[in-house]
Amino acid sequence: MTIDLAVIGGSGLYAFEGLENTERQQVDTPFGAPSGDVVTGSFRGKRLAFLARHGESHTVPPHRVNYRANLWALHALGAQRVVAVNAVGGIRDDMGPRALVVPDQIIDYTHGRYTSFNDVEGAEVRHIDFSEPYTESLRQAIVAAARAEGLAIIDGGVHGVTQGPRLETRAEIARMNRDGCDLVGMTGMPEAALARELGLDFACLALVANFAAGAGDAVEISIEEIFEHLAAATANVPPILGRLLDTL
Ligand code: HPA
Q1: Residue 1 confidence (pLDDT) above 70
Q2: Where is phosphate bound in this sequence (predicted)?
């Protein structure tokens, strides 16, 4: 099966609106079960595969996502190109709620997650070049697609990835800011590294849900507000990816 684009949906994105002639694929992997069925279908005349990272009813927390099974499943279905949609908190002043960002770097603060397909007994140790964690051509294609849709989008930024599921303390965000992080999320890693191990083209479309703790005008972060902003930002995903598909 050819898949023109695979999309991993994050918080607030549990199904891909407008996907037609859908079929559900339950994929078994050597690493266990993915977060749910992969839904394949057509969108703007192209083949798209969609997987909800947290499950379709949001039951899988960030630290328990089976990132290896998810990436493996998309690859096994024939995907070569993956756009990961991630809900994030903004640290930089211009990355307030509802901002769209295509980050170009990552700092990984997660722990205790399986970070490699080779992290199994007896497998040969493998090191990948990860200087540029995202595929630049795919990043640029997302930025161009959003702009062609008349949407403001920020090209580049450092995506700090925390363990979750709790949000961060103000001191943690202040430290991340000093480290150079512009955004904070809980699911960007090891997803990006695993995609690289499989040789996939991979980029992230980050949707800012809130200012991170102590950043911008954040005093207290309300989960209701996060989901309200996410719903608004998520509405931009199908038009951006539709335009992206037109250019592929
Ligand atoms: N921190 C971490 N992950 C997030 C946040 C945040 O403030 N908002 C949305 N995802």
Answers
A1: no
A2: 11, 53-54, 187
